[in-house]
Amino acid sequence: MVGRLKSDDAERKAEQRTLRSLLKRSNYSTSDLEALVGRDGARGRRIIELINDGMIMADGYPASKRQMVLAERAALSRWENEGGSIPPLGKAGNQMLMRSEDGEGR
User: Fold this and answer.
1) What is the rounded CA–CA span in Å between residue 31 and residue 51?
2) DSSP 3-state of 33
3) What is the dihedral sign for C-alpha 71, 77, 79, 81?
4) Do residues 15 and 7 make contact, with C-beta atoms less than 8 angstroms apart?
5) Do residues 47 and 18 touch, judged by C-beta distance below 8 A?
6) What is the pLDDT of residues 37-80, one digit of tens each?
7) What distance in Å separates the CA atoms of residue 21 and residue 27, rounded to the nearest whole number?
């Protein structure tokens, strides 16, 4: 549940001051917010709770079409490489492979 900060002018200014202080201490990262102990601690904890209630964490976002395509390609690549199969080496790779089987190149 996302709440709104409703209060009179003095309280609103105090909440803004607390919010700015919270953000500045956390280097403007909402994942690192911590309330101070003391007079503004309860207000800070309430603001942090409101922010956290309104955030959607990265693992909560549904995968985009691009992410699903990339994940499918990665899974297919892993599946194709199982069982010792390898992608084609090309002419230079085949020549190196032949030399190593003959005992040359070591």
Assistant:
1) 10
2) coil
3) negative
4) yes
5) yes
6) 887 788 899 999 998 888 877 777 778 888 888 888 888 777 76
7) 10
Please give the single-letter amino acid code of residue 10. A
Determine contact, residues 18/44, Cβ cutoff 8 Å. yes
Cα separation, 24 vs 54, whole angstroms? 19
Total length of the chain? 106
Cβ atoms of 47 and 2 within 8 Å: the answer is no
- The answer to whether residues 33 and 48 touch, using CB atoms and an 8 Å cutoff, is yes
Q: How far apart are CA 46 and CA 52, in angstroms?
A: 10
The amino acid that residue 31 corresponds to is: S
How far is Cα of residue 20 from the mean position of the Cα atoms in its chain? 24
Task: Give the Cβ contact number of residue 49 at 10 Å.
Answer: 13
